[in-house]
Write a structure and sequence with these properties.
alpha/beta, homodimer, TIM Barrel, 3-stranded antiparallel β-sheet, 9-stranded mixed β-sheet, 19 helices, 431 residues, globular
């Protein structure tokens, strides 16, 4: 019998605002940060559970406090029953009615639950000697359905329907696992497209992206229409007709403004328009989607829970669904999100970048391919080439594809030297 | 010139779970709590800004940490310019892109902005010697429109339309202020209806509510249908046909379940069904509203920002809109919410109860009557007779109406003895 000894948190920040990496119309100066969690046990096997919530700087301490508020639920608890029924473990955390009031099921407290759940999955994977994507992809459909909290979903997806989706994908799992190990999972790159870069840097990075084998790039837009047109023209000239170039507005626009702006960019054939307006505005996204078709609307990195994804799908508001590994309540809620997307036939192209988001979310996309949607067609994972060196199992992106990780774990463990070096010291950073 | 000296926070909790006051289908054992903020200045005039975020216990410390994270925006700042343009002050807090990432515009961080904004309004009111409702109700339509952040609203409400609404109400302001001072604002009571109460206590409290002059009561429902039918029957017998009895499910149901449950309660003629499902589920509320008509759907105490209210109104999902004083980003965002309701012709019946919510939200309802919607018809404020003794200006509810407060301030200041006595000491409370 193993007991959980401690939930240790750390406030880790990288001064990325100094280089304008990651600058967009809404987030001009992010300092990529991690509210970091390490779960230790008394097993003596060297296995720890690691996970984090990604933030962009100020407030990372608030996120850490939220994770700390959950320590009482796990410290001293017997580990094996928690891992054996991760569905029940997830529900127990979601059902703390006092903590639930702080959302409910959204924002800092919800993401904190995600960190705890993800850290437990990390332990479960390391104990099984499997990477998360494969551990999930080898669970039975019944086990997977048992992980999902169907509350508020059943008018769009019932447990029975979820089971049908998973059973339909079951026969092809072994073959798709082979294909994944052989060919990896497609990546697209946002590296060329940050707003803070010069036109020359944009053109150079577009050329490099194509040379590196990426099948799509993405440009940040939304600060100035003339700039966006000029930058899209440069990217289109460098990449050539037919090469997919997505556009990301980072919630910058009103609904009417989004429609007008996207129509002005439409001659450059955007692969999708991402986050055109408030992530809460389901009806607004639906209105934009109708107005800018055939340009596709994408969103999801700030969709705060499964209920928001359900509605975006019900309203035909999105043609591309972008899950994030740490915005929702962890692996369990993201399985719900993948099942919803499969039910509605919408491809999932996960959000990544920041610090550690590529490492984390690749597992979910690969699980989706092997055991849920059953295809890589139209699917790809965002990729940004920043800060991977800080992770114990950094992404391996070559030839425009994510290679499937084989190391045991959920992929979110940061190297201890990096954690030590980038632990935030308030006096040193704040002016 | 006055400078802000400090933002001092406190973690204040009342052990209400011991009495089952406040028990409902989703929140069985709340400990009513306040993440409390006191803003001090160097003016030497004895004026301080007081406000809080209401929580129900665990996690109140996280909410305090979120308020603390905003201190850097105000400490040492010159006070007068902040108060002179509260619209700009509000936008500056909302536009901290790093903190925004933690929501965006939802949950712990958004409510923290609300506490800061509300505390500044408290100072502004005290300096002007006015209660909040009257300070607002005497601002010009142009000044009021300048308080609102119209971002993400303009496809439902433009600044020009807001101005038209306020101008149309302007001629009757003086007369309605007189009517308000004379007759107060209608209250309804939730006191009889908590799930933890016996049938005898329910019947007795129903009789007392009518004797006290309340024009509506509300019953908590959603835990067990047979119990709800029995309790509704008792209440209906005591109150008589035609007396308004609302029902509150506190987010307990799936969409289909809500429809079936409300239909089973329909013979008892519920005045409205409140929070039938997830507060995020705009489309679900709309589906329920269509299915259970003519029973009206009400929600809003967990609607986390103006974008959610916009959609609930656009989708015809609610016939009663329930703002909360501390769930959104404070007075400014609630003015947006009141204007949205006026635009769509939906009555606002604020959520209250907890600790201090009655004291706070009455100002917004009274302002709505005098200067926005221009009527008390179909409007009432929730009332629960708990914990008012802890406030410097406790609500004055007599004869079923809130008497308009005349003391200067925003109404959220808790007595210093109460704050001292109920400051949370972790060791003493946690098992």
């Amino acid at each position: 019998m193993t007991r959980i000894v401690a939930l240790e948190t750390a406030d880790i920040r990288f001064p990325t605002s100094q280089s304008l990496d990651g600058s967009d119309a809404m987030n001009p100066d992010p300092d990529y940060s991690a509210a970091y969690l390490r779960i230790t046990t008394d097993a003596g096997d060297g296995i720890e559970g690691h996970a984090f919530v990604f933030t962009i700087g100020r407030g990372n301490d608030v996120q850490v406090a939220a994770i700390d508020a959950l320590a009482g639920h796990l410290t001293g608890r017997e580990l094996e029953p928690l891992l054996a029924d991760m569905g029940a473990t997830n529900r127990a955390l979601m059902d703390d009615s006092q903590l639930r009031w702080l959302g409910p099921e959204k924002g800092v407290m919800h993401m904190a639950i995600g960190a705890v759940i993800n850290a437990l999955w990390d332990i479960k994977c390391k104990r099984a000697g499997e990477p998360l994507w494969r551990l999930l992809a080898r669970m039975t459909p019944e086990e997977l359905v048992g992980l999902v909290d169907f509350r508020y979903l059943t008018n769009a997806l019932t447990p029975g329907e979820a089971l049908d989706i998973l059973r339909a994908a079951e026969p092809g799992r072994a073959e798709r696992e082979r294909l994944l190990l052989e060919g990896g999972f497609p990546a697209y790159t946002t590296t060329p497209g940050w707003l803070g870069y010069s036109d020359e840097k944009l053109a150079r990075l577009c050329r490099e992206a194509i040379a590196d084998g990426f099948g799509q790039i993405k440009l940040k837009v939304g600060a100035d229409l003339d700039d966006d047109i000029r930058r899209f023209r440069i990217a289109r000239e460098v990449c050539g007709d037919g090469f997919p170039i997505a556009a990301d507005a980072n919630q910058r626009w009103e609904v009417d403004e989004a429609i007008a702006w996207v129509r002005a960019l439409a001659p450059f054939d955007p692969a999708w328009i991402e986050e055109p307006t408030s992530p809460d505005d389901v009806l607004g996204h639906a209105e934009i989607a109708r107005a800018v078709a055939p340009v596709r609307v994408a969103t999801g990195e700030h969709a705060h829970n499964r209920v928001m994804f359900k509605q975006l799908l019900q309203a035909d508001a999105i043609a591309v669904m972008q899950i994030d590994a740490v915005r929702v309540a962890g692996v369990n809620e993201n399985i719900a999100n993948l099942l919803l997307a499969a039910k509605f036939g919408v491809p999932v192209c996960p959000h990544a970048g920041g610090v550690g988001l590529c490492e984390a979310v690749q597992h979910l996309a690969m699980f989706d391919f092997v055991a849920v949607c059953g295809t890589r067609e139209g699917r790809m994972i965002e990729y940004v080439d920043h800060l991977h060196e800080h992770f114990v199992v950094p992404t391996d992106v070559r030839g425009g594809v994510y290679r499937a990780p084989l190391a045991p774990g959920a992929g979110m463990e940061m190297r201890s030297e990096s954690r030590g070096r980038h632990t935030w010291k308030p006096e040193a950073v704040d002016a």
